[in-house]
Amino acid sequence: MTNKDEVEWVIRLGDGSSTVLEPEPQPKHVVMRLWDCLKGLAIRFVTRMWMFLKKAWDLGVDDPRKLIHGLKLGVALMFVSLFYYMRPLYDGVGGSAIWAVMTVVLVFEYTVGGTLYKCLNRIFATFLAGFLALGIHWIASHSGHRFEPYIMGISIFVLASATTFSKFIPVVKARFEYGCTIFILTYSLVSLSGYRVDHLLNVAHERVSTIIIGTCLCIITSMFIYPIWAGSELHHLIPRNMDKIAKSLDCCVAYYFGLDDDESMKSLQSYKCALNSKASEETMANFARWEPPHGNFNFRHPWTNYLKIGMSSRRCAYCIETLSSCLDSKNDQVPEPIKTHLESGCMNLCTSSSNLIRELAIVVSTMTRSRKINMAVEDMKNAVLEIQNDLKSLPDLLIQPHEQKDKNKAVSSDIIVMPLIEVIPLVSFASLLIEIASRIEEDMVKTVQELAESAKFKQAEDEVKPKHNQTIDKIVSDEENMTALQRV
Amino acid sequence: MTNKDEVEWVIRLGDGSSTVLEPEPQPKHVVMRLWDCLKGLAIRFVTRMWMFLKKAWDLGVDDPRKLIHGLKLGVALMFVSLFYYMRPLYDGVGGSAIWAVMTVVLVFEYTVGGTLYKCLNRIFATFLAGFLALGIHWIASHSGHRFEPYIMGISIFVLASATTFSKFIPVVKARFEYGCTIFILTYSLVSLSGYRVDHLLNVAHERVSTIIIGTCLCIITSMFIYPIWAGSELHHLIPRNMDKIAKSLDCCVAYYFGLDDDESMKSLQSYKCALNSKASEETMANFARWEPPHGNFNFRHPWTNYLKIGMSSRRCAYCIETLSSCLDSKNDQVPEPIKTHLESGCMNLCTSSSNLIRELAIVVSTMTRSRKINMAVEDMKNAVLEIQNDLKSLPDLLIQPHEQKDKNKAVSSDIIVMPLIEVIPLVSFASLLIEIASRIEEDMVKTVQELAESAKFKQAEDEVKPKHNQTIDKIVSDEENMTALQRV
After folding, report:
1. Are A406 and B422 a contacting pair, CB within 8 Å?
2. Nearest residue of B to residue A406 by CA position?
3. ipTM, 2 decimals?
4. Of the four, A37, B61, B370, B423, which is 20 to 30 A from B224 by CA?
5. What are the sequence ranges of the domains in chain B?
6. How far does A189 lie from chain B, in Å, by closest CA?
7. pTM over 0.95
8. CATH number of A230-457
């Protein structure tokens, strides 16, 4: 098998057998292999970079506001660099202009609320820590040179430990976490500088003034250039999630009764957004607290009520999650007549429930009460009654076919009730739908009404009123007729 | 009504009527009111402070590690202050020793993984940004004094915008968010300093060396003084949540059949911990990636598998949430004989399910495979079969009482099936239990097995093996008998 010009090496062993030594791979091969390896690595690297860039591009196209946020930070940083580039300002604020740059980089957040939270935390914590450090430095310097480092050291240790620990307390964590960090930082810096630098007040003054410059710049950029309000985000997220839940519910029931199309399978899973949005809802509500009045939102807009609505949406989503597992299997067991018997009831309940959810979502997003809500609740209650009646008449259906078959015989020995076990998946499907309806009525409607009251939502436009008046007129005239009749 | 020694002022008006001037409230009253007001404020303040301190105290007693974390930061900060207090070191590292203090305050996190994540991000981002800034500064300084500020300004704008935008990409957000911030910060600082400071390399060198001092101190303190590993936390959180789910399931079923005590009502809600722990699980898994091997965890321990188990636990918790709403109402409607008929089946299924969950939790927490799992799965499957049989025999129970009553008559006209609607709550309760069992089998067992394989869990101790051998021996001897028989 070897070429004629290749040398073959054979080793003859002690026992008479011989072994052919395989020729070593040619150096050309090694180079080639190395080349292939490198080429593979390069291709992999380029592919990964390409994937990364594509992902970034998709993200930018999907939500351009994220790109705009990046540009805004760039603008703010450019502006603050001016303080450094322009000599007069530089000489004024001194080398600590660097603090302004740091402030911009560390404080600038995606939402206005986030930026304000960090700005205000930073300013107050810096002031508080600065004054405290100056005070303790004064005490320390008056208690003799020997004790000074001990006093400062112990005060740093105690304050840093206590502040770090207090970050674990939920209220502090939600509102002042960043402030705690800045407090420790400023206290350490000022008190350490106090030990070395003689013009301590200058240091404190410079740091505070540059921080104020930085924070002002951040607040202006984030509030006046294409602002993204945490409150508005929350205000849009909640009804969006509610719509998704309504869509999932529709798809789920349609799929169960075989009325689905390809598109519905995709939106079947959309309730999962509501399941996983707890953390972001809470962050937004926390940030929204710090925001000034904007758009339709007043100063003390009840953001916590949005969290309650979010919670009630999630409670519905839990049920839908359980409902969706009814779709996997067991579906085919259910006898067709029984399925047909309950189909219209289930479809009605599903339609009225999802309509109610959508109406509630409209109430939240338009901030306007709606008279349709009461009607939708009534519709849903009627649908529940209908499905309960269907379930009540189910036993007849379970027996009837056999009665008809054995018309001429005595029924006593021939009754074979259709096995209940086959009906159970459908029955539990229906009772899950009823449970969802009750959660919508008890939780979601209530929490939306609470929000409508505490946020003073606009009254519904009087589209229904004329009709209502007509009804009243009719009732009045009916009553007049009645009294006329009684008089007769 | 006025006392004799009080003066009454009367104004006689133009129209002849008169008005008695009310005596003004005594100054003593105003002071008293102010005093009361102040006292109220003070009491409120003291009460709130007291509540806050009590909350903090409870938190510290509940989890002393949080207190220890605070003390650790204090220790690290004390140590780093030494660099500032001791003159030789201070002269060596210069005024930028302040960076070491900043590093400690900003980088020190609760878990080792969190600290390492921030440290490594900080070091790499500082290096990368420093070199990039030096490079671009070199280019800028060679392209003439006129273009220099423009090149630097544009580069800051572009890099800051791009880096801020890239923080929104999920992979970057999870692993390099802090690094991105530090990258922008360092790049701005170095390139701005480069424009003013002549000894740029010195600045860069000082900053890098102080940051390394700070990070090393942080890593040492967090890894060697009472370390809290994110990996261990995750490793304990997952089975703890599983146990809570098992407990909730037990309580739920016991409560439904009226076997509950006061204590069980409390632990009924404990499944909610599992519902809400998604965010913290993900954070811990992210931090755990950065941790070196410790305890039983190797370098590439499959932390993502823990997230999968967490997800499967949550899927069970969703079902239990739906199950728990069966407890609120409708419970009393179910006729007692039907309830008794299904009680043992439900209790068995619940016990076997919660046993299986507890076994799986033990597997996860001890990192040892268990032969009991297969037996527990079999138990659970048998319990499902049992309950399905109970459900199958339910129709007989629904009709029987009436057949017995009307023994002597023809049944045809007298069959009144017990209304199915009354049974539905119990039936859907049972089918939810079956659904939970199927989720445990399909999701939880599978994800735990995946973890066991990828983390190479220890084999079970051979407690069951002898029995197994006996069985094999028996089979062999049976086979021998068979062949003996065949031979005959």
Report:
1. no
2. B412
3. 0.80
4. B61
5. 62-224, 230-457
6. 7
7. no
8. 1.20.58
